[in-house]
């Protein structure tokens, strides 16, 4: 079934821009990215859009569709009414380069600041060994495709540009959690999580979990456990006393 | 090994992490472009929470109609002053008569729910509008979250949990006392017994599904394989944890319903339906 859909697409760059109206053909089974491509091919040849795999795995085509952070390639046109106007805008949290393309280098900078994976010494035969049950939690976070939709929707930086210096965002808080929970890693990142990466800024309103296209439970399985680990070290007098008296290890 | 300093690179982009003036974002004036009814959820949350706060405050200050043999309202249990109706708990002291016995104890359940990770989401969104919904701009000009006082106190959630677990034992004991009749004879049961049992069960589910509980039981470990029992317990609590929000609401309703049932019995509005 084919119909003509009304689209409003933000067009412009860092000096300014606005929402422009288009009417474009939609075919059965298509996704928003197909329509953006048709716009490029038929009406707006210079429309800038970043995309790659078209399968929800590369994390390139992140945008805001009707105000909600989504992957354009994973948003079916069938979810909208035929008489509905579909609005597509660039990610609000990051500086715009042009049209739907934003500069996400904030994320690369934060990623580079995270203390790297540091495994314990190898076993006698030169191998690293770990049990599946021990590494399972970290593996959930490895599903991340770095689309940065969680970073985009996080109000800590979305609504407060000034917090970017102090807050790494949910994607990198779960990176810290992933490493801190890893059975082979020996670095204690709890103090850094609180002091350098702004864990305390997160008020766990769970928008990051709501928008994650990989279904990662960022808040329940990553950020809250990391907050609890920081409490162990920083705010729980009993745990602190236990660690002083018994010199107890982390396990 | 202790914490290492975060790595520093020379590639920090101006305005994207180092405090310099930011490059421009897309010029979109609207606070949001959502087309769904995003405001319904915070509105409903605020309405229900406010209704509970009003009702529970009224009942806590009322200092009457909280005991109808053999049932005691969960708002007043444990009843620890000599002014208490009934005899469900040791009376530790005599407080001023104008202070309701509920006032001394409500800090525990209030503390648990106020610092609960789920309720934090609920009230930050619905009362503080921070944010009211995902990708909807918040009205505040500054935001520091839970990084400084007074919200740093949220980190003491686990202590509220410990205290609440003791309360759960007491409320379960209250439910068991419900297997008596009006004369104190055991082996009886009424609708009130079921109400108190359901309330105690939901409070246990709410407390045990708590994120802090999940952490304490096993989440803090990095090697589950060395602690098989704790891993099994963590796995079960993780299953409950997925329903934490549901238990948070159900237990809130069950506390109010249990109190209302005792209130109706104590005022003589209804009589208890006795099964045997």
TrEMBL record, chain A:
Entry keyword Lyase:
no
User: Where does the record place the 2Fe-2S ferredoxin-type domain?
Assistant: 5-92
Q: In which pathway does it act?
A: Carbohydrate metabolism; tricarboxylic acid cycle
Tell me what organism the protein belongs to. Answer: Geodermatophilus sabuli
Q: Which domain of life is it from?
A: Bacteria
Name the cofactor(s).
[2Fe-2S] cluster; [4Fe-4S] cluster; [3Fe-4S] cluster
Q: Enumerate the UniProt keywords alphabetically.
A: 2Fe-2S, 4Fe-4S, Iron, Iron-sulfur, Metal-binding, Oxidoreductase
Q: Might you name a Gene Ontology BP term for this protein? A: tricarboxylic acid cycle
Q: Which Gene3D superfamilies match?
A: 3.10.20.30, Alpha-helical ferredoxin (1.10.1060.10)
Which InterPro entries does this chain map to? 2Fe-2S_ferredoxin-like_sf, 2Fe-2S_ferredoxin-type, 2Fe2S_fd_BS, 4Fe4S_Fe-S-bd, Beta-grasp_dom_sf, Helical_ferredxn, SDH/FRD_Iron-Sulfur, Succ_DH/fum_Rdtase_Fe-S
* Coiled-coil region: none
UniProt-recorded name of the protein = Succinate dehydrogenase/fumarate reductase iron-sulfur subunit
Record's SUPFAM superfamilies? 2Fe-2S ferredoxin-like, alpha-helical ferredoxin
Q: Where are the transmembrane segments?
A: none
Give one GO term, molecular function aspect: electron transfer activity
What family is reported? Belongs to the succinate dehydrogenase/fumarate reductase iron-sulfur protein family.
Q: Name a GO CC annotation attached to this entry.
A: plasma membrane
UniProtKB/TrEMBL annotation, chain B:
Q: Which residues cross the membrane?
A: 38-58, 98-119, 159-180, 186-206, 247-270
Q: Does the keyword Transmembrane apply?
A: yes
Segments of this protein annotated with the region Disordered: 1-24
The UniProt record lists the keyword Transmembrane? yes
Q: Which UniProt keywords apply?
A: Membrane, Transmembrane, Transmembrane helix
By what name is this protein known? Uncharacterized protein
Q: Which organism is it from?
A: Geodermatophilus sabuli
């Amino acid at each position: 079934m084919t119909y003509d859909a009304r689209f409003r697409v933000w067009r412009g760059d860092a000096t300014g821009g606005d929402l422009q109206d288009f009417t474009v053909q939609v075919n059965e089974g298509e996704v928003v990215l197909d329509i953006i491509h048709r716009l490029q091919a038929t009406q707006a040849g210079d429309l800038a859009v970043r995309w790659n795999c078209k399968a929800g795995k590369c994390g390139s085509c992140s945008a805001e569709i009707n105000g909600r952070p989504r992957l354009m390639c994973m948003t079916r046109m069938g979810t909208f009414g035929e008489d509905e106007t579909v609005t597509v805008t660039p990610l609000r949290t990051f500086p715009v380069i042009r049209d739907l393309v934003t500069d996400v280098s904030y994320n690369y900078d934060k990623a580079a600041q995270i203390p790297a994976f540091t495994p314990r010494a190898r076993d006698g035969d030169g191998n690293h060994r770990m049990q599946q049950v021990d590494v399972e939690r970290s593996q959930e976070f490895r599903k991340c495709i770095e689309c940065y939709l969680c970073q985009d929707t996080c109000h800590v930086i979305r609504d407060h540009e000034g917090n970017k210096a102090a807050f790494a965002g949910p994607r990198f808080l779960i990176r810290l959690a992933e490493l801190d929970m890893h059975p082979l890693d020996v670095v204690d990142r709890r103090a850094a999580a609180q002091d350098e990466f702004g864990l305390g800024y997160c008020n766990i309103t769970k928008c990051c979990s709501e928008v994650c296209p990989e279904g990662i439970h960022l808040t329940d399985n990553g950020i809250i456990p990391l907050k609890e680990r920081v409490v162990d070290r920083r705010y729980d007098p009993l745990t602190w006393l236990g660690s002083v008296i018994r010199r107890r290890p982390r396990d | 090994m202790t914490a290492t300093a975060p790595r520093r690179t020379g590639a920090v982009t101006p305005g994207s992490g180092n405090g310099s003036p930011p490059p421009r974002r897309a010029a979109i004036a609207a606070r949001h472009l959502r087309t769904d009814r995003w405001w319904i959820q915070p509105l409903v949350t605020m309405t229900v929470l406010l209704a509970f706060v009003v009702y529970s405050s009224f009942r806590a200050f009322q200092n009457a109609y909280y005991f109808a043999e053999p049932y005691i309202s969960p708002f007043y249990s444990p009843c620890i002053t000599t002014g208490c109706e009934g005899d469900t708990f040791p009376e530790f002291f005599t407080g001023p008569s104008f202070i309701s016995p509920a006032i001394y104890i409500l800090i525990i359940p209030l503390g648990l729910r106020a610092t609960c990770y789920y309720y934090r989401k609920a009230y930050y969104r619905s009362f503080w509008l921070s944010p009211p919904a995902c990708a909807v701009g918040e009205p505040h000009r500054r935001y520091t979250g839970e990084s400084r006082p007074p919200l740093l106190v949220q980190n003491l959630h686990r202590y509220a949990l410990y205290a609440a677990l003791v309360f759960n034992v007491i409320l379960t004991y209250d439910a068991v006392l419900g297997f008596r009749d009006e004369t104190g004879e055991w082996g009886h049961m009424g609708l009130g017994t079921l109400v108190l049992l359901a309330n105690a069960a939901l409070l246990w589910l709410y407390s045990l599904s708590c994120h802090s509980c999940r952490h304490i039981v096993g989440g803090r470990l990095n090697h589950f394989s060395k602690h098989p029992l704790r891993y099994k317990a963590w796995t079960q609590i993780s299953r409950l944890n997925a329903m934490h929000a549901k238990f948070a609401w159900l237990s809130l309703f069950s506390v109010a319903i249990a109190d209302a049932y005792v209130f109706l019995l104590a005022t003589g509005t209804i009589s208890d339906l006795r099964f045997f």
